[in-house]
Design goal:
This protein has 72 residues and is of the alpha+beta class. It has one domain. 44% of the residues lie in helices and 18% in strands. The protein is built from 3 helices and 2 strands; from the N terminus they run H-H-H-E-E. The chain has a two-stranded antiparallel sheet with strand order 1-2. The longest helix has 13 residues. It starts with a helix and ends in a 7-residue tail after the last strand.
């Protein structure tokens, strides 16, 4: 993910395409293929929770941080 705004822009554009869900799936798959880039853009998770990154009538993008148990 080069930038959150770029990611959201691609997703919004894909919503106008035929088979929009498939297009958005490809965009998300590409974005999460580089976890370090996602962390740089969205920040290191500090606690579990959910935050809305974008919401429209036809598209909602959420940041969900799931709690995990880490061994010492």
């Amino acid at each position: 993910m080069s930038s959150l705004e770029g990611f959201l822009s691609e997703c919004r554009a894909a919503m106008g395409a035929h088979r929009a869900q498939s297009h958005v799936h490809k965009i998300v798959t590409r974005a999460i293929s580089d976890p370090a880039a996602v962390l740089r853009e969205l920040g290191e998770p500090e606690r579990a929770g959910m935050r809305t990154l974008y919401r429209a009538d036809n598209l909602t993008v959420l940041k969900i941080v799931h709690p995990c148990n880490r061994s010492p």
